[in-house]
């Protein structure tokens, strides 16, 4: 479409959309000198792709130019299946940092933790790597080994770890009854079907008797699909705003509200978060906190309050671009701030006090064995003894139930 001609002799006012001709000329000069004088021959395509990567990498840690392989890799991770070690990473001050390990993956089994710094991958230092280069190095064929060097805050020496890549099929929702009436819903990341899977989990847990309390575990959840986060929050809210976004373009200004048809609007709720809870996980925690729907427990979340759009390009490649910031219902931006829990409980292990010697039925010879679901109870008890935050969340739910009964 041609612009309307200006009157003769009229001088257009300077516009922010005008191309900076001097900088473009300088770019062309740099391009030519690199092509002509660099120690090795570099083709034009490589130089231009590197220029585009640099253009985006200087904007923020989450914007990136994706070649065809990287674009496919991103699609695979969004769909929940890829070959790798199961880890979400980001860049902070030029260092490759663990945001969170994904549950039941080589990374989580090796003990990697949020905010660990990855110093090298297969002997290659990471200090000059782009985020996508690091991701590409960590992904690979299932069964292939990978060596990483990790530095953890508070430790004097780095850790050398050897992991074996697996097909990472990240089931994003798990659930169980910790005790009769008290449910546990774990969401490890937000994929396209997460909200529906969470709804089904709530139905199963409340099948035999109504839930008297629920723990929603969002610890070490790196985020994912915005609409899935909205859908999960909507499971517990029957009205009101969940999240809204603001950006420069009209299609980046969105608002999401709760639907009245809510399966768990009245269930007492405790939400667990920590430093590995990021992005979409923070949307859910922030919405429930602002709406006073549940108690947020744990430690401060990661603080990723930006929204990225993945834009396919005509050549099969793609662009991941930060286009908006999201805000909680009360207008809070959590970018670089995070969600502060209502009740702070640091990570730890529950140590049971040694009990003095006393004879109980279970100590008597030939005592009758329990006929109840002991295996499931033992599993839940072991989980609670290993996870102090989870144990405290269950105690809080019980306390809330007692208070509610006395009203």
Give the full name of the CATH homologous superfamily of the domain at 173-307 and 323-344: 2-enoyl-CoA Hydratase, Chain A, domain 1
Which secondary-structure class do the elements indicate?
Answer: alpha+beta
What is the CATH topology classification name of the domain at 173-307 and 323-344? 2-enoyl-CoA Hydratase, Chain A, domain 1
Number of helices: 10
Low-confidence parts: 1-15, 352-361
Order of helices and strands: HHEHEEEHEEHEEEEEHEHEEEHEEEEHH
Let me know the largest β-sheet: 6 strands, antiparallel
What general form does the structure show? globular
Instruction: Provide mean pLDDT, rounded.
Output: 86
User: What portion of residues is helical?
Assistant: 25-40%
Please tally the β strands and state the result: 19
- Which CATH architecture of the domain at 173-307 and 323-344? Alpha-Beta Complex
Instruction: Determine Rg (CA atoms, Å).
Output: 26 Å
Q: Give the CATH level 1 class of the domain at 173-307 and 323-344.
A: Alpha Beta
Beta-strand share of residues = 15-25%
- For the terminal residues, how far apart are their CA atoms? 69 Å
Q: Which assembly state applies to the chains in this document?
A: single chain
List the helices and strands and how they pair.
Elements: H1 21-37, H2 44-57, E1 64-66, H3 68-79, E2 81-84, E3 87-92, E4 95-101, H4 106-109, E5 117-121, E6 124-125, H5 131-138, E7 145-151, E8 159-164, E9 166-169, E10 173-179, E11 182-187, H6 194-205, E12 213-217, H7 226-234, E13 241-247, E14 255-257, E15 269-273, H8 280-290, E16 295-298, E17 306-312, E18 318-327, E19 343-344, H9 374-386, H10 388-405
Parallel strand pairs: 11-12, 12-15, 15-16, 16-19
Antiparallel strand pairs: 1-18, 2-9, 3-4, 4-5, 5-6, 5-7, 7-8, 10-11, 13-14, 13-18, 17-18
Helix pairs in contact: 6-7, 7-8
């Amino acid at each position: 479409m041609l612009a309307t001609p200006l009157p003769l002799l009229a001088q257009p006012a300077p516009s922010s959309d005008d191309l900076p001709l001097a900088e473009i000329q300088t770019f062309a000069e740099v391009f030519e000198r690199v092509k002509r004088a660099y120690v090795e021959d570099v083709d034009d395509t490589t130089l231009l792709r590197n220029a585009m990567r640099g253009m985006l990498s200087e904007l923020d840690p989450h914007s990136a130019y994706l070649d065809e392989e990287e674009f496919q890799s991103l699609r695979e991770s969004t769909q929940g299946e890829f070959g790798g070690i199961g880890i979400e990473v980001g860049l902070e001050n030029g260092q490759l940092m663990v945001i969170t390990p994904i549950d039941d993956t080589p990374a989580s089994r090796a003990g990697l933790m949020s905010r660990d710094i990855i110093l090298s991958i297969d002997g290659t230092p990471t200090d000059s790597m782009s985020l996508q280069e690091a991701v590409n190095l960590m992904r690979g064929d299932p069964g292939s080994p990978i060596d990483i060097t990790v530095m953890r805050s508070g430790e004097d020496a780095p850790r050398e770890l050897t992991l074996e890549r697996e097909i990472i099929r990240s089931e994003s929702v798990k659930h169980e009854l910790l005790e009769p009436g008290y449910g546990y819903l774990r969401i490890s990341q937000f994929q396209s079907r997460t909200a529906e899977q969470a709804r089904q989990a709530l139905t199963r847990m409340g099948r035999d008797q109504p839930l008297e309390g629920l723990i929603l575990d969002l610890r070490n959840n790196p985020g994912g699909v915005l609409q899935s986060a909205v859908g999960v929050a909507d499971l517990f809210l029957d009205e009101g705003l969940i999240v809204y976004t603001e950006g420069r373009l009209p299609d980046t200004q969105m608002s999401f509200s709760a639907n009245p048809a809510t399966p768990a609007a009245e269930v007492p709720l405790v939400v667990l978060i920590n430093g590995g809870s990021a992005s979409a996980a923070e949307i859910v925690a922030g919405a429930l906190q602002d709406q006073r729907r549940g108690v947020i427990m744990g430690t401060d979340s990661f603080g990723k309050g930006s929204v990225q759009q993945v834009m396919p390009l005509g050549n099969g490649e793609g662009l991941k671009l930060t286009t908006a910031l999201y805000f909680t219902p009360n207008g809070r931006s959590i970018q670089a701030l995070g969600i502060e829990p209502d009740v702070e409980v640091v990570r730890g292990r529950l140590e049971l006090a040694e009990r003095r010697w006393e004879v109980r039925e279970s100590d008597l010879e030939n005592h009758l064995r329990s006929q109840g679901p002991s295996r499931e109870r033992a599993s839940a008890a072991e989980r609670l003894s290993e996870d102090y935050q989870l144990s405290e969340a269950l105690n809080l739910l019980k306390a809330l139930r007692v208070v509610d009964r006395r009203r």
